[in-house]
Amino acid sequence: MKINDNCVGCGQCTAFCKIDAIIVKSKAHITDACVNCGICATYCPMKAIEADE
Questions:
Q1: Helix residue ranges, H only, the chain
Q2: Residue 14 DSSP one-character state
Q3: What radius of gyration do the chain's Cα atoms show?
Q4: Which stretches are annotated as coiled coil (predicted)?
Q5: Is pLDDT at 53 greater than 80 in this prediction?
């Protein structure tokens, strides 16, 4: 998963990540612990999370 420019750093994605693979400072950052389940992308209100190509 990757974060695009739509991210505003709201942190809502962190509530849905079951393995705590998202860190939010000024914007979200997905760590190497991510297993690409995509649940965070489903709940991101800004559509700022997308699958890696």
A1: 39-43
A2: G
A3: 9
A4: none
A5: no
Q: How confident is the model at residue 52 (pLDDT cuts 50, 70, 90)?
A: confident
Domain that residue 28 falls in: 2-50
Please report the pLDDT score of residue 9 as a whole number.
Answer: 96
Global pTM reads 0.84
- Considering its fold, how many domains does the chain have in total? 1
Tokens matching residue 26: 């000024």
Asked whether the beta carbons of 13 and 28 are under 8 A apart, the reply is: yes
Q: Is residue 41 within 8 Å of residue 2, measured between CB atoms? A: no
Query: What CATH number has the domain bearing residue 34?
Result: 3.30.70.20
Chain-centre distance of CA 1, in angstroms?
A: 7
